[in-house]
Amino acid sequence: MNLKWFVLLFLCFIGQSLEEQRKAEEVNIGAIFSFGTSNGKVARIAMEAAVQDVNSDPSLLGRRKLVLTLHDSHYSGFLGITGALQFMETDTVAVIGPQSSVMAHVLSHLVNELHVPLLSFTALDPTLSPLQYPYFIQTAPNDLLLMTAIADMISYFQYREVVAIFSDNDQDQNSITALGDKLYERRCKISYKAILPPEPMSSRDVIVAELVKIISMESRVIVLHTLSITGLKVFEIAQELGMMTSGYVWIATSWLSSTLDSTSISPKVASSIQGALTLRSHTPDSPKKRTFQSRWNKLSNGSIALNVNGLYAYDTVWMIAYAAKEFFDHGGKITYSNDSNLNSFAGETMNLAALSIFDGGNQLLSNILKTNMTGVSGPIAFNPDRSMSRPSFDVLNVVGKGLLRQIGYWCNYSGLSVVPPESLYAKPANRSSSTQRLDQVIWPGKTTNRPRGWVFPDNGGPLRIGVPRRVGYKAFVSEEEGTGVVQGYCIDVFLAALKCLSYPVPHKFIMFGDGHKNPSYSQLVNMITANVFDAAVGDIAIVTNRTKILDFTQPYIDSGLVVVVQVKKMRSIAWAFLRPFTPLTWGVIAAFCLLVGTIVWILEHKFNDEFRGPPKKQMVTILWFSFSTIFGAPREDTVSTLGRIVLLIWLFVMLIITSSYTASLTSFLTVQQLSSSIQGIESLVTSNDPIGYQVGSFAENYLFEEVNIAKSRLVPLGSPEEYADALEQGRVAAVVDERPYVDEFLSTYCGFQKVGPEFTRSGWGFAFPRDSPLAVDMSTAILQLSENGELEKISKKWLNRKICGGQSSAVDSEQLQLKSFWGLFLICGVTCCFALIVYFCFMLCQFKRHCPELTRRSSSTGTRISHSVRLKKFLSFVDEKAEISANRMKRKRMETDSPSIS
Q1: Of 62, 210, 222, 237, which one has the greatest count of Cβ atoms within 10 A?
Q2: Nearest-CA neighbor of 179 among 199, 157, 158, 155?
Q3: Do residues 149 and 208 make contact, with C-beta atoms less than 8 angstroms apart?
Q4: Distance (Å, rounded) from C-alpha 611 to C-alpha 618?
Q5: SS3 breakdown of the chain: % helix, strand, coil, rounded to 5?
Q6: 486-499 pLDDT, tens per residue?
Q7: Omega of the bond prior to 384 within 30 degrees of 0, cis?
Q8: CA-CA distance, 732 to 716, in Å (whole number)?
Q9: What 3-state class would DSSP assign to 808?
Q10: Chain-wide mean pLDDT for the chain?
Q11: How many C-beta neighbours within 10 Å does residue 591 have?
Q12: What is residue 462's DSSP assignment?
């Protein structure tokens, strides 16, 4: 009996030892998915295949075996949590999953506490931060990169507004928020967010209600970010509502490509997604990938096709295997310790005390993040922020029968291209717009023409365009009596711009105003925001307050406020002939006349008989010669070269001066002069005179709010006739109005003039609601009209730009200042100085030859002759006529030669 018990105890001991040894040789990993979904089915097959391949390679884990435990969450978050708790009780070293980001947020708190790495290739919420969830790792490119790719596509096709349809869960909401941020960086935006209940609660009625709302909106670019069941249902209903026809743009996120890659769809579903664009994580072609694809039919028994999530699932298992190998190679052991925070739950029904901390979890996590391998999905490595290295996407177009046609690629390195990303990484990064390219797209409605991406309000009805009914200046905009035809410069520009668009714009003009006075332009533009008008066309100034509530096109005519006053002819005075030059200028001209006459006398005195004679005669000659040059060449001839040079330069200077004098005197005697002291807006502000302005113009608010002119000084005027009457009768000292109106006024009415500079800078444009895509297209059309000269033709047709007869466009004729001629005087002065220097150098040389005894010591005394004596002799030599000096020099030579001859 005792032997029996001994044998039984021995067998139990041996069995327990074998069991412990078996457990020690097992590396347990778990997987939490909804295996009823297509992604869950694909992931299950791929993970089981990966475990089998790992265990068949003895060089990897040696005697140890990778054991995969699967837990089906059945779309339930609660079941997902219970599955994770069960894994934590069974010495699991890593968990793959969960399938949704909602569960990833919850389970990350659990694995953070127990140090068990959690890896997911489907929970790709961009807000799952490694700082908050250090033990959660995304093994596929997260949705931030996906949304960046979509934003680049939207910008590439030049769309500015999109509608986002998404499910009400954490991943979809956060991903759409990321899309909005990326669109904002590209000057685009999400105009409407259609939120659907999460699967499987999205009913047909809810989807219909949201799609009907979208139909009534302007944007026709729709981004669909849901799970496959809801997404396909949205496409089917959209087709029934006529939203899969020409004009719509549908962009589905990667769920659509995964669904089409892995499952077959009905013809009805296939027709409903015709023309949609979608993305798929790019996995480069490789022998490993081709081998795995060839095995797939056998692995799945033909139950489901392989999609990209299967590749990531397979590689995720291998990442854990390589990390575990590194862990064991460095002496790591799978051990667990109690969590002191959970000890208080010991003995409770939930038995949370059974959960324990994986002691090697931190090391295993570090090994996973150091992964640098090439799997079936391509090169796998993590950036310092734990994002996937070199992520990229295939850009796909859904064509007939639900087939995916590749039209390009997107990678974070070079943006959109038709070249595979792996080829681009060998080249320098280049994201310039000129290099972005995709192949031709077949859009909904089976058209290759790029949809406009938006429609007009009221589901494409004609635009209600408000037009001001003006009292004056009807050349800009007016309604023809009897026919009701709207015409004018502004209307012609608008219609010409519409012709430049690539699509028709149905519209109707609606006059605004009672016809007795100019309407308020502020009220006109405010009626656009009140949805009374869809746009406003006319002479509408682009000012700050209006741009805060509306979008304006590119200005089609420059504008700005100017001051207009009455002018009169200058009263003739006796000394009017002196006005062209300032007193200083007259003084400098007189001084230079005397200076030039004196210098010419010096240069000519020795050689020219006309510049010789008694002192009184010579003074008269200098004065006569000086001032006769004002009227042309003088009577006296110049014989010396230096004298002729000086005279030539001076005559040129006098030619310029006399010509300027003649032109300026003519202007002074004919130009109209101001009838008041107002020289511009500054002098107008400092005065207390009344100021006229055009009714309806922004000039009233500007003068009151910006310039601080009291409203009691402002006088409303409605037409050009009122302008002229008010100025002539003295009811206003000046009129402040926009330049285009003033130019028209001055071209018709004489006796008035602009004064001072234009003191505001603006322009006229067409007004549209905020973020209207038509405003952008019309701006481009206006630039085109400007470049091809059409704007100038329209301006010549309607606007009279000729100045009224006898009226000068100049504000005033100013006296000519000395600074206008200082260059001429400088040239003349330098020439005179140069001539004098050359002349005196020449005279000095001549003096030394004629009077050598004055430059040597006296032979009798041995001393030099005094400077005063030499100076007197030199001046006498200079004053002496050239012939006399030459004769005296000749006699001296003869006297010197006589003794030697004898």
Answers
A1: 222
A2: 155
A3: no
A4: 6
A5: 50, 20, 35
A6: 999 999 999 999 99
A7: no
A8: 10
A9: coil
A10: 84
A11: 11
A12: P
